[in-house]
User: Fold this.
Amino acid sequence: MKGWILYKTAQSSLSPEAYEIHRFIDVAKKKGIEIEVVCPDQFDLVVTREDRKSILLDGKTVPLPDFLLPRMGAGTSYFGMAVIRHLERLGVYTVNSAQCIDTVKDKLYSQQILAENNLPVPRTMLGKYPIDDELVEKYLKFPLVVKTLSGSMGKGVFLCESKSQFNDLMGLIHVTNPKLNIILQEFIETSRGKDLRVFVVGGRPIACIERSSSDNNFKANFSRGGQVTELAMTPEIKWLATETAKLFGLEIAGIDLLFDGRHFKVCEANSSPGFKGIESCCDIDVADEIYNFIKIRLGRFED
Assistant:
């Protein structure tokens, strides 16, 4: 079985910090899977009816893989998305699909989908200029969270504790990038500095961790130095994670949940979730779980 991992850099340029990619490479060797890490810049796409000759890797026509594993998430560029769509059109099994990646990249659209299907989410507004801070305060109150429409690992997320702080941030954004699309979101106080990450593979939650800030920051991302501990999944946690992944069509997903008193709200879904934090405190091999799922989907039980 042969697979490509679509990443921001090629295999020859991988940094030691690319934990998940190195794990995929190491586990693939143990399972006898031929894996290659490729980046969008290596591809050329040709619109032609000669399907197998319509995609070039490093300027050459090469045998296509059995599967593609995109690992760029919210950072997937237009060209990266075009590569994924093209390989899908050629019949390469892709985990996750271009449509799913594109959907969860847009944080407002994904919140609309969740709300439409009656899943608990923080109240959310699309920011537009000029900002009506009275309207914002009426519907969201302060403090509130300001997010860029696309982002990951806690980047592009700010907490405004007061109206004056909010207006200062809006003024800065307006001066530096008036076309920036942002969303404004209710701040869930009971989840300050902590949240849950549930890892879902093939519709099955396989692990759950609680992430907590180590520097009194309201964000708890492991990539930002947050602490992680394994958490036993309740039926509510399992249901929210499973339903969220299902709504977005994600076969591999990292579902982030916020503590809302004794219950939870869905914060967001990630199409290319990291799993260093999960493997650091849970007795689970995430890369192995993902490869086993891919084998089942491809019917490669004998491999």
DSSP finds nine helices and 15 strands in the chain. The chain has three domains: 2-98, 123-187, 190-284.
